[in-house]
Amino acid sequence: MGLRADENPCSLLKGPAKEFCEQENNGGGPPGGGPSGPGGSQGLTDGAAGQVQEIAEDLLKKLEQLLAPDSTWAPEQADSWVYQQFLWLGQHLAIAIFICVVVVCALTAWQGVPRMRQMGASTGWTLAAVAGMASVPGAVMLLNKAVASAFQTMFNSNETTLFVVIREDMKDAADADNPLSVLLILAALVVALAFAALVFMTRNLGILAFVCMAPLVLASLARGGDTSAVWAWAQRLLGLMFAPMAIVLISPFVKLTEGALVMDAVLLVAADALMLRMIVHGVPYFGPRVARGARTLVERRTESPLARAVVRAGAPDVYEQETTPRGPRTVDTPRRAMAQDTGVVLAAYGVKRPQRPSRLTTASAAEKVSRDAARTEHLREARRRAHQALRPDRPAASATRSAFTAAPESTPVAATRPASEPPTVPPPANP
What we know:
Blueprint: H1 16-25, H2 43-67, H3 81-107, H4 113-156, H5 162-172, H6 179-212, H7 214-218, H8 228-241, H9 254-257, H10 261-282, H11 287-301, H12 305-314, E1 319-321, E2 330-332, H13 334-349, H14 362-371, H15 373-390, H16 395-410
Parallel strand pairs: 1-2
Helix pairs in contact: 2-5, 2-6, 3-4, 6-8, 6-10, 8-13, 10-11, 10-12, 11-12
């Protein structure tokens, strides 16, 4: 069945195909400016470039959101159900400690001023602790927003920041038309996104844990104002909050790499190493193990020397120790690190725990012995040569020592007996 001359040949089509057909019949070319339309001599190339730009823009936005998100997994208000359980426990614990202090001070009131001071300090610190428990979620939320805003300003404020330079270089760089450079920058963004996701998960889990345990730590103030546990808790939490600021170390080099996508990819590789360092130093307890797990995964999946060098720079070789570190290349196991901080919290409550001696784990000790075997053998050989070099300096002493050593072997027993002494005769045997 054919169409009449006055009938629209595109009437049987629907959707974008119909629009394309109608514009083609009208001589306007395909919709959106294709190769046959006005200004569409490079439509295919422009479309591909636009898609690459959109992919890079999406990756950069995701990278920002993962490294410094506006919100965390921790409760933002004290009336959250999860935080309410810990808040109830912390408040009742603080009140129980305060009642115990009041009872003890009443029973020992004969001591006078010291007990009155203790009761006054306990009263003030209990009120401060109860008030602080309710304000922790809001304070953490505000601090996280400030960190996220500072991070976005640091990387998007002007033309000399990293993400802005990458966006501009995708359009105007000397190698922007080189497909290999574009693939390199996209690959670097994808890899950086994977490490940023690891930072996001470990950081948010850590913030959630420390916010929920805040009431239990603050309750230790009710005993009399021992702030050692609160300081330790605050240091761990602030380390997690400000971990993304480590990326600021690459900011001075942004201006040097401007105008070349390949150099921007090098900066992103350096950022990957810094992200691993974030996890090692910023995430308490499990940070070193998580970073080394990522390093092991990369080393098993790739043979590239560059990739291995990057992950080794981010997660260096260390020895695990079961107690306090004694050297710069040792870290605590997660169990020992948590035990140490638990000991600090219990000490704030008045419970003393014995400190165990320092020692390496079995795996770290075996690795240390095998790694130091060559050095130990070298030192042993150096000592032996030093002793041999010192022997010719004392020939007289050596000769005297050899004479005394050889005399019992070369002199007969009879020659050492005096001539006037008769030989010894054994007594006869009894019949």
